[in-house]
Amino acid sequence: MELLLDPNHLAILAIIGVIAGFIDAIVGGGGLLSIPALLAMGIPPHLALGTNKLAACFGSTTSSYTYYKQQLFTPMFWKTSAIATFAGAILGCGLVFLLKAEWLEKLLPLLIISIAIYTLFSPKAMGGNHCVSPRKAPSNTRQGLQGLILGGYDGFAGPGIGAFWTVSSISLHKLPLLESCALARVMTLISNITALVIFAFLGQVDWLLGLWMGVCMMAGSFIGARSAIRFGIPFIKPLFIISVVSIATHLAWSAWV
């Protein structure tokens, strides 16, 4: 713990927290930076996931509120999605604690790299400008399946969950890009809070580091959400991919080689 409280490490986590919050608010995937940063500093996998959930709640709350104030999210349309996300997050958290720490340490880098590669090469990952705002609630079946699967993934691990929400919402519900980002932020807030309660109950949250990163992610999310609304997101994709692949490759090398 003394090592983690070193000013240099706290400064690094602060910088990564701001960047992760910024990216998360725009396209999702801030966990692709924050989780590897925690793991790289020697925090055990389960504790890193729980600590990241605490930090992510700050950023998700800020960006969700910002999108809502801009009328990019209509709560009454997404009740089924919210309930399914909550249930999925509980199931995902239960699964992650069935895995041994050493297995999780080896699995996380592979998940992170896979998601980064998908985001890089998927032609629809940043699309959606041709879509239109819904005038009624989308299909409950689609909402339920999407919420259960993605809520479960966020409860299980979570890196890149915002990107998955954004991409799948464009595909399933034909939402415009900014509305997909707004839905992603609100639903990940639900799964983040659900998972945080479970991780905290099991003693897998470093509150000091989580609060420190959370404040930094909140600042990044505030800037990121406003930037997304004003400028769009094409400028962030190259930096996002380069950063993610670099950190994930380092973790994979450490865990597997």
UniProtKB/TrEMBL annotation:
One Pfam entry name: TauE
Keyword Cell membrane set for record: yes
Compartments, record wording: Cell membrane
Main location: membrane
Keywords: Cell membrane, Membrane, Transmembrane, Transmembrane helix, Transport
Transmembrane region(s): 12-35, 80-101, 107-126, 182-201, 207-226, 238-256
Membrane topology classification: Multi-pass membrane protein
Keyword Mitochondrion: no
InterPro entries: TM_pro_TauE-like, TSUP
Family, per entry: Belongs to the 4-toluene sulfonate uptake permease (TSUP) (TC 2.A.102) family.
Protein name: Probable membrane transporter protein
